Amino acid sequence: MSVTKSRISTINLVVIPSVDQDKSIEFYEQVGFDKRTDVPFGDKYRWVEVYPPSGNTGIALAPPREGDATGVETGITLATDDVDATHEYLKSNGVDVDEQVSRMGDPVPPMFWFRDPDGNSLMVVQV
Fold this sequence. Notes:
- By secondary structure, this protein is an alpha/beta fold.
- The chain has one domain: 2,3-Dihydroxybiphenyl 1,2-Dioxygenase, domain 1 (Roll).
- Helices cover 17% and strands 36% of the residues.
- It is built from two helices and eight strands, in the order E-H-E-E-E-E-H-E-E-E.
- It has helices at 21-31, 83-92; strands at 13-17, 34-41, 45-51, 58-62, 73-80, 96-97, 111-115, 121-126.
- The chain has a four-stranded mixed beta sheet with strand order 1-4-3-2, with helices on one face. Strands 5-8-7-6 form a four-stranded mixed beta sheet, covered by helices on one side.
- The chain starts with 12 loop residues before the first strand and ends with a strand.
- The model has no long low-confidence stretch (mean pLDDT 94).
């Protein structure tokens, strides 16, 4: 039988390393995410997923595998309708954000980066 399509339909989850899942959950909830999954698996692990309030793609906060680095550039881009207000909100709540919003001009949207407690970076863009 020949397969003509992969049948991949959406991005379900992205996984980022989290050394201290409780600290990461607290951080992502502060940023505005909802914890939707937190269940034990294996002998000593937890599977944790957080989602933006209106999003269908989540972030899994997973313990890093032995030898894996934390503090990675995740490639995750989050959308906001007001990049300046989001930047100010995160900054005023003690989140490690870029000093200012970057404005490169069309077609690049205004954006900034922030870092989670493990140093993993995520980008916020205005849509």
